[in-house]
Amino acid sequence: MQQPNEGVWKSMRTGTAGLAWFFSYYAVRAAIESPERFATPTLIAIVLLPVLPAGIFLYLFITDMRRKDELQRRIQLEALALAYPLILLLIMTLGLLQLVVELNPDDWSYRHLGPFVILFYVLGLWLSTRRYR
Amino acid sequence: MKNRLRILRAERDWSQAELSDKLEVSRQTVNAIETGRYDPSLPLAFRIARLFGQRIEEIFQD
Predict the structure, then answer these.
(1) Structure confidence at residue A103 as a pLDDT band (50, 70, 90)
(2) Are residues A35 and A84 in the same domain?
(3) Is the CB of residue A71 less than 8 Å away from at least one CB of chain B?
(4) What is the interface pTM, i.e. ipTM, of the complex?
(5) What pTM does this model have?
(6) Same domain, A82 and A114
(7) Does B42 touch chain A (CB under 8 A)?
(8) B60 secondary structure, DSSP code
(9) A45, A67, A89: which is the final residue of a domain?
């Protein structure tokens, strides 16, 4: 088990990597706002840029998970066990809706799903943490 | 599952934080075990039993 201060520092490091991933997404969105400025290969390279901070975040997140004790791991597992089916349900429902209704891509598209993934995970984390409090 | 962890800890005048340090788990885990909301894994139950010098079944009951 890690010392409390060490744990806080590592969580902050993971959080910073998460923020870097988040901001890189919006930086890419801003950069491709006027796609005519770039050639297609450059655009693809720009769009793939968030993969790097996302990879760093994923590595740190998993490393953090391995350092947690058994109850903390269970809480994370329960949070993901709730978030994963919920996001799957949302994707499937949107997919089915798309077959019968014309959805405006400015309102509903892949890029709108990200906040829901985070929301469902935080909801799962809150419920699970409450259960073992 | 019922357990005597809180009693054993109180007998030694340890805080939850002190016990969690000795067991190398979070304070949240100690609290969840004491309140019966979480049953520890077998390795953790062994660590608890060794720390208090008792057998597992003397600390944890069905």
Answers:
(1) confident
(2) no
(3) yes
(4) 0.88
(5) 0.80
(6) yes
(7) no
(8) E
(9) A67
